[in-house]
Amino acid sequence: MFESFGDKIKRLRKQKGYTQERLAEKTGLSKMSIRRYETGERQPKIEQLFRIANALEVPIIELLEELWLEEKEYVAIFDGLNSEKKENLTDGFIKGYYQTSKKLNSVTSSWINEKKEKEVTRKISKHLKKLSLAGQEEAEKRIEELTRLEEYRKEPDEPPQEPDSPHTLK
């Protein structure tokens, strides 16, 4: 069964335990805007979509899937234009689509990486709490060793940090 864009926002909002007012606060949008998106009275612009996806902690692609299905109507209108009007619209249409796709891919990748980082940090913290002080100090040494290996650094061009001298006080 097809779930409309508005129904999807409403379902995800309720799954998070948010009221329309709470979602509005988290997105910086008005409660009225959230209501209109949920009822299908309005479609959000791409910037609002990013805010909603972030507040609901879902990849924006999850929200856009339904909008793409609704885009078929727009495509039919575009296809119905005469060739002169199409030529005038095509460059802007393609450029807009490309820029939106590029931004979408960037934001989605960024969101996924941020979620993974938080999960890894949470797991490391959980394991560190199980270690004695000596074990935690040993873990810190191992992590520091990994930072000296280029393949594990975020910035491959960043020079490795030299380990602290055993005679240096921290």
Overview of this structure, please?
The chain starts with a helix and ends in a 23-residue tail after the last helix. The protein has a domain at 5-80: 434 Repressor (Amino-terminal Domain), CATH 1.10.260. Helices cover 72% and strands 0% of the residues. With 170 residues, it is an all-alpha fold. It has helices at residues 5-15, 20-27, 31-39, 46-56, 60-80, 83-129, 133-147.
Write the layout of secondary structure elements.
Blueprint lengths: L4 H11 L4 H8 L3 H9 L6 H11 L3 H21 L2 H47 L3 H15 L23
Helix pairs in contact: 1-3, 2-3, 4-5, 5-6
| Category by helix and strand content | mainly alpha
Beta percentage is under 5%
Rg is 24 Å
Q: Let me know the number of strands.
A: 0
Given the C-alpha coordinates, what overall shape results? elongated
Distance between the termini: 61 Å
**Poorly predicted parts:** 68-74, 165-170
Percentage of residues assigned to helices: over 70%
Give the integer mean of the pLDDT values.
Answer: 75
Q: What's the order of the H and E elements?
A: HHHHHHH
CATH topology of the domain at 5-80: 434 Repressor (Amino-terminal Domain)
Q: What's the architecture of the domain at 5-80, going by CATH?
A: Orthogonal Bundle
The CATH superfamily of the domain at 5-80 is lambda repressor-like DNA-binding domains
Index terms:
mainly alpha, 434 Repressor (Amino-terminal Domain), 7 helices, 0% strand, disordered C terminus
Short description:
With 170 residues, the protein is mainly alpha-helical. The chain has 7 helices and no strands.
